[in-house]
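Help wanted!
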Amino acid sequence: MRDLRDESIPQNGSGFNRRDFLRGSGAAVAVTALATSEQGAVAQDAKKSVRTAEPQDITLNVNGKDHKVKVENRVTLLDTLRDDLNHTGCKDVCDTTNCGACTVLIDGKVTYACTRLAVECVGKKITTVESLAANDPVIAGFVKHDAMQCGFCTPGFVMATKAFCDKNPGATLDQVRKGLGGNICRCGTYAGIAACAMELVTKGGK
Amino acid sequence: MRSFEYARPETEAEALELLSEHGGNTAVLAGGTDLMNLLKRDVIQPARVVDIKSVSSWRGIKPHDGGVMIGANTTLDEINEHAIAADYRSLIDVIDGIRAIQITANGTLAGDLCQLPHCWYFRNGYGLLAMKDGESLVATGDNRYHAILGNSGPAKFVSASRFAPPAIAWNAKVRLVTQTRSVSEGVEAMSVKEEWLPLEYFFLTPKTNSQGVTVLKPGQLITHLWLPAASDTRSATYEVLELNGLDQPQASAACCLGLDGGIVRQAKIVLGHVAPTPWIAHEAAKWLVGQQITSDIAETAGRMALAKATPLSHNDYKVQMAQTAVKRALLKATNQLHETL
Amino acid sequence: MATELKVAWGPRKENVYLGKNTLRMDGAEKASGAAKYTADTNPKDCLVAKLLTFKGGAGKVKALDLEPATKVPGVKAVYAFVKVGDDLNWDGSLVAAVAAERQEQAEDGVRAIKFAFDVAAHFVDEDDLATATKLHNDQTADVLKKYPEEVRKLADADKAKLSDDEKKKLAEYQAAMTAASRIKPLGENTKGDVAAALKTAAVVHKGYYGIATISHMCLEPHGAAARFEGNKLNVNLSTQNVSGTAGQFAGPLGMDQADVTVTCLYVGGGFGSKFAADEWGVAAAKMSKETGRPVRLMLDRATELKVAGTRPSGFAEVTIAADKDGKIIAWDSHHWGSNGGLKGGTLNLAQYPYVFQFDNVNRKATGLMTNAGPDRAWRAPPHPQLCALTDTAIDDIAAKLGKSSVDVFLANIDKTNEKLQATYTAEIKRAAELIGWAKKWHPHGKGGAGPVKKGLGMAIHTWGGAAHAATCTVRINPDGSVESLSGTQDIGTGTRTAIAMVLGETFGLPLEAVKVRYGSSVYPRSGPSGGSTTIGGVTGPNRRAALAALGKLFDVVAEKHKVKGESLKAKDGKIWSDGKEVCTWKAACGLLGMMGIETQGEGPKNDGLTSAQVGGVQMADVSVDTETGIVRINQFVAVQDCGLIINEQLAKSQVYGGMIMGIAYSLTEEQILDNKTGRYINADLENYKLPRIGDIGELIVEMYQPDSEYERGVIGLGEPPVIACGAAISNAVANAIGVRVPTIPLTPKRVLDALKAAKA
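Answered by r_m:
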């Protein structure tokens, strides 16, 4: 065994032969390393499941309705919703998974649409703020508590609040604040949003 | 973003084959949080993105080899809502600190472990080591968020993983798989090569811009994380977060303690966001054995853990922060942490 | 003869809408995503443009070839902002734009552009006066050496008499001097006798204070969607200035302003940074003209942070002295900072120290020229910085005296604007009650035995908030509906709701009956929404126009029903004469011919509907973790006057918003310019840290509303509540830990560094 010097992680000798790594490196989220060249690659029959980089027709189910769009793999769900389907309730604000303005539900899971490719969402149910009825309690709550000013972050906050309150009836103020920490408002409407969410969780969140 | 191929395999074998192609210049897409940022910033340019979310054998939490095995596709919410949450508190402490339902609903442990450094030079296109004309930009630039330990080499960024410190403190292992090719009597055969690696050996400090931050080879990925039986081990993570919302910790510490009548019999302390890799405080942990955790003892352990810190020009403050994180993780694990923000 | 109606509002207690809580009328549109912003403009054949920007501190364009971009599939137009030889003076400077069928194609086009630059020296350390001065002296000395005295003297010569060669030499010399300059003296002056006062002082305190540059960081980035129809241009512009921007397109495009229509129904934040068409807006229009297609160009997030507006920094060395009662008797300051854009400006010398006019004052200001995006007006310019550099010093002198800062502020209220002294005094007392000052206050540094210390701080502010110039049209239609039309906009204030309330109150109609139209430059002109001028700006003209219209309606009713016009009142959807119902509103309007009534309103006028100048007090209760440097807000109190309140809920929303923005710049947000690369290194929302919903503590807002405020008429409210936050929070932190953390924002790093420095 290695000694317990305070040099933490071994720089070598992990039992793995290091190999030149990346141009770019392993990407996020369970990543694999990236090679600099085609070395070691064996030409395989292209998998049927591989979508080439060219634009292709896909079908997205948004708010219960199927939509056909032609997009490249690299197009995010956010851009597809906004540019191709004109669902502009989800906003493009930070584009870096920080602000929550693009929040949608995918198969019921609350998600930043900027972190999803459109092709990833084929076969899934996408729910946007446009699905909410005019008398939706979350929308009504935002209006009642004046939880908006310029309104640009608001639809994303509405979706996050809806997802949180549906899942957490009876939540405390601390839990509300913890749950909604993935959204940013610049105008400073947090007090109204918190009051709105508290009222919704107290009612049971529906 | 540049263009790339996309594939959504359903089996391990298929996923590995897809990942091994293009010379392994492929990227894994699961929770998507960091991958999208890297692609948008043009920091990585994979020829293919392999969406592993449909590989069902990589999802879920199952007993395994006397402990539990968590699939790479298991979301943080699923872990948090699972019965094991009560046993592995230090992991739940991190989930608790994420404070963004969008991340906990989609993010995964494996994804977090594989995050690339958030170093702003790296993300702004200056390379992993941020060298310019043979000089480290970090060394004399704005290094307020950079390393205070293990920073004598060219790598001065900090490890981005939030779950690695608690997982290493638990002596977690990761299952790494890759596709191997063998040719026997002229027939080519593909097989899956599986290795279980202690997580603490997973992270590496690169010496050149072409090296990575983990042992992962092209085409290889983490499919599972294994944690030993919790038995009565006490654990906690303390992260110093500037925002009471989604934020990167400025320092963190996780510990696992085996106690016997209040006396420490086993201890492991791991710091996060202070060095290019998660940082194991061996001496401090060793010193704790035989002691009873008190505020003073925890404070001393914190100081020991940072005794060899070599802060850069603008991040001396992180030494204090990291000491505090160690102290508070120890106190939290022993239910003695009361007054903090 | 037309019925004359009194323009002043009636008794407060008789109001139906005024001063009450009325829900934001377009709230549901915003919350549901139905509201369409400029960024959402997406007509069928719309092109999307992306930008190539400079990534460095300073440079000169060496090569720029857009041709390769035009070959990229989907690309329809390219546009250059610079040419070879041009200077690129800050990170994010615009280089080129590419418009394509799709975003990703535009990005491909941007990547295809061949762009190269020569690196030039940059300077970004805006707090570092010593280095800036040395650089300036060294560099300008080099220039002086290079250019003989006869060239330098040409600057004083009669320009008309210079030869071409001389002119050229002079221009070269002057350009070299500009390039070499890093500081700009911005004056100094003296009042009273500081030296003499210092000798008599009971306490003297010398302090250093700073406040970093921040970006506006509008969630909807700056941008425009332009569309040519024939030779007419329609622009959807994300703007605070619907009525004032058409000409800014017309000029560069060589067309008549009358052929340009600017539209903005919703704007996703502006905070003072969206008054102009901007070069990117003009680029969108030009590319639209070239392609005959609509073009949408919104800044990307990094560029939004870098070039679309910042609030200047400020740093000050202050000597402050007080007598034993806490009366401040002397002030001596030198302040500096940068407003970016190589402009060399800093906070206005004449406004510092802030709010207080002390008897003995020496002051001096120096501007720094930094390679950073230029400033734009940021909510209450530059009061937040002035307050942060003034009220902190007052707090420190209070601490030195061992006095509560409430007592010291009160002791010096006689040095504030005479008209506001009573307001300040009342507001301070009320805020102290709300936060429990008497019970919670302790001397500086006695914030508790554990690692987490608690403290209290306060600060006061002032703002004008006079109504802007505006006109409007009000219509009473024969079917009973009423309309208001004006080229104003809603930046979050609740303009629509405020106008509807004014018309509803004047006509005695439900708000649903009032249609408010704005957001187009074809409507009667209305001032830009900045400086807390809008609510006063739009309510005055609408009230006046509505009254004129009502007078005309009353004439018709009076004649038909044989009553006196002066006896008539409109209330509850009916017309009343001396308390008796005459007819319904609808019936009255039915008496009008097909044309109905249309009136015009304008303002501001000196008729009591609006006025200016408010005070305001804020108090913060914070906890500071001395082991991590983290500061959290426990309670944050604002007591704010603003004259007559149109809508109390929306007024309070403005105050909450100001306080939360205040928490942001006090604790976490700042522009970080890296001296190695010259880059705005944190131009993303991970590292440009804005508070989240968990970071605001408990906010307590009270509108200071004695009858005397109602009598003042409307005064704008957007700016005041954002001013005192920095000083109040910094003072609370100092009270908690007994150490001044000199520079705002009070990040964990700055708090720990200050604690360590104090120990050393």
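OP: Thanks! One thing I noticed: DSSP finds twelve helices and 14 strands in chain B.
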